[in-house]
Amino acid sequence: MSYAVKEAFLTLQGEGMQAGSRAVFLRFAGCNLWSGREADRAAAVCNFCDTDFVGTDGDGGGKFAEAEALAAHVAALWGETIAHRLVVITGGEPMLQLDPALIDALHAKGFRIAVESNGTIAAVAGIDWLCISPKAGSEVVQRHGDELKLVWPQPGIDPVALEAWDFAHFLVQPMDCADREATLKAAIALAMERPRWRLTLQAHKIVGLP
Hints:
The chain is α/β, with parallel strands linked by helices. Helix content is 21%, strand content 27%.
């Protein structure tokens, strides 16, 4: 299988339970909930996405014919240090491309594999840390993992119902939009009302990392 990568770069993970961890971010091109074109945003299932995942022209992006070539690319971005290697695979929707061959190739390079998905496609086996971020109006089939990250507020999603899903951590993240003060207040209110939820912020944006 070939892989279309929008961008890949070394940074610090900005969100969730692993925030602050050194990681290679591997962003696949393509998503099943929005085309990525602004003309289609209003009608998309996920119309609040803040990420460019169209094409393969980003920093470290490109097309890779084999899993081993992409794993070598990720390893080169990390550098020579062997310990604590972490790759965060995201998109778009990474489950459209992530397969056992790439999982094996990255593990062979010593990487722990974290994945951030919308949950509409079942996760491939072998992922070390799975974060699911459900979107209102979509059918989530992956209802277990390590971390559930709810971008909030989202009309049409009931946080209480999500608590029945099998996740170790439940995180609420303010939606990044024009009225950020209101979304932050809403996220704080949810965490205060439902103590199973923990507030998470996009720390990479706060400190100016990609």
